[in-house]
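I need you to check the entry underneath: sequence plus fold tokens. Let me know what the token row says about the fold.

>
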Amino acid sequence: MVTIKDISKACNVSTTTVSKALNGYKDISDKTRDLVLKTAREMHYFPNAAARQLKTNMSHNIGVLFVDETNSGLTHEYFSTILNSAKEEAERLGYDMTFISKNMGRKNFSYLDHARYRKVDGVLIASINYKDQEVINLVNSEIPTISIDYAYDNHSSVMSDNIEGTYELTKFLINKGHKKIAFIHGEKTSVTEKRLNGFFRACKEGGILEKKEWVVEAKYHDTKSSEEATEKIMKLQEKPTAIMYPDDFAYLGGLNALEKLNLSVPGDVSVVGYDGVKLTQVLRPKLTTYYQNAETIGVKSIRKLVEIIEQPKFCVPEQIMVGGKIIEGGTVKDLSK
């Protein structure tokens, strides 16, 4: 392994000068700094991470807490996009990322124990049962955290604007002349509560009396439960003219049910999704959906977490809201004409 001493010999300068050049100090000449940096690159020099940690008391490693209850893992496009953009931003800021879990070989850790074991500087809580006591223990520990789509008291979070997103999507259907709107929502979570709030608010403003039997629970990112919910709704005596799905992937299950019932989209029933994943934009007709800006969520979550890590005395806890937009496809029939 190449050391600072090796670089100092190659450049015929002191080890102190090499250290200053590598760490960006200004009290050496530009010519010397450029020589040292060029030589370090050519010799494939990498700082000793363990030594840097001892010196700075930082690992430059961020933990990621991601437990996907839908069992989709990193194939879940919404979360994979968030994590990929978070990873790129972390690397740009000089941090590695490590997944935190409760299992390490034959050892069982708590989330907090694993985070301490890995000596992470902070943890990004991307997807989990946020009310799990072990997660709460981690949040309340000395390790800085930031959560996505869930806010803990006196801690920062990055939130997709689920209330406004569902409100705008419902208003879109109402403006297209739909007065009979069904909402297949995900399981009871804080995200679902916000989306229901947006849905009911839009219905109230639009003068629409929602029917209880048209508001049905399914599961996020689950085709089977959305298929069953769709079949249940469309077998009612009074049928809706439009169905809102918990996410774009779940809509595929709904589409299966509609095809079994010989119902066409948007001829017999209009549909909208949520998330704006690329998959549903290659279907025909293209799905009308609400795009959540997953890339921005990932970037802002890492930027805020690094701010908490590096400037704890000046960092104020905040909820950072990230808006989205409606992507209009061909799955909504205009009944207003």
The radius of gyration is 25 Å. The first helix runs from residue 4 to 11. DSSP finds twelve helices and 14 strands in the chain.
